[in-house]
């Protein structure tokens, strides 16, 4: 594992009776925010559980912060990680928030009580409440403060905005940006929400049905996926299909075709060379890109 990677999965497989995760190969860079996006049940939370050694992989290796997960006791590794799970732990329902914080503090020698209290203040969380009686959003904010209080090198956030009101989410985003300011910290998060991925992530990993469809640098992703409306006397569905990076062709009426591509620059050059008119272009949203990738994946699966 190189110094520039925070997390690396090589050939990771987890088999369940109704679901197979992997094989997954993934390299998450240090110093950036990477978001894993994918439909419900695509395996995002399962991947996190493997990273945290809460369950074991059947095949493959996982390295986090240069250490192989599960090869030796993970105590020292865990001290460098902060984790916000998607669901709160049921067995803690009767515990007071302050009691959980005391427990957590015991485990982390870098626990910073000032940072913890500052986070509670910023997020407006009352730590004197019993966990099971907190609102979903308050509980989430509390768990978030706990995950950050020891200044982890690597922060794993499973659906961080789930249950938060817009103001709380904005505060959380500000906290995350400040957390990243040092330059050597890493966030790996999962998300369903296009806007939060757009605002936060530097890299995006698409997952579907237990496997990774691809990992992309966010700005590059948005500048390479476009929908073009192309017209010309000699255009046909067969010619439109030859556009570089073509991921979908539809006739849009008369001699105009709607073509989706993931190689925008090459596609525009190709139109020039073919003497075709670029009537209009549309940048694509993340959910549209994901839908196109899922469609391609299904077509590939059918043809294999
Ligand atoms: N403890 C478990 N035992 C058996 N199967 C499970 C378990 N947890 C999850 N699964 C299955 O694994 C698959 C992936 O679930 P996972 O929760 O990892 O997906 P996800 O991408 O995080 O979904 P969501 O977006 O809904 O949170 C699903 O088919 C789910 O039913």
Automatic annotation (TrEMBL):
Gene3D superfamilies: P-loop containing nucleotide triphosphate hydrolases
Domain annotation ABC transporter: ranges: 2-234
Assigned keywords, A-Z: ATP-binding, Nucleotide-binding, Transport
Domain of life: Bacteria
Signal sequence annotation: none
UniProt cross-references to InterPro entries, sorted A to Z: AAA+_ATPase, ABC_transporter-like_ATP-bd, ABC_Transporter_VariousFunc, P-loop_NTPase
Any one GO molecular-function label of the UniProt entry: ATP binding
SMART domains per the UniProt record, alphabetical: AAA
Classification via CDD domains: ABC_DR_subfamily_A
Pfam family, one: ABC_tran
PANTHER family in the cross-refs: ABC TRANSPORTER ATP-BINDING COMPONENT, ABC TRANSPORTER ATP-BINDING PROTEIN ALBC-RELATED
Protein name according to UniProt: ABC-2 type transport system ATP-binding protein
Organism: Paenibacillus harenae
High-level lineage: Bacteria, Bacillati, Bacillota, Bacilli, Bacillales
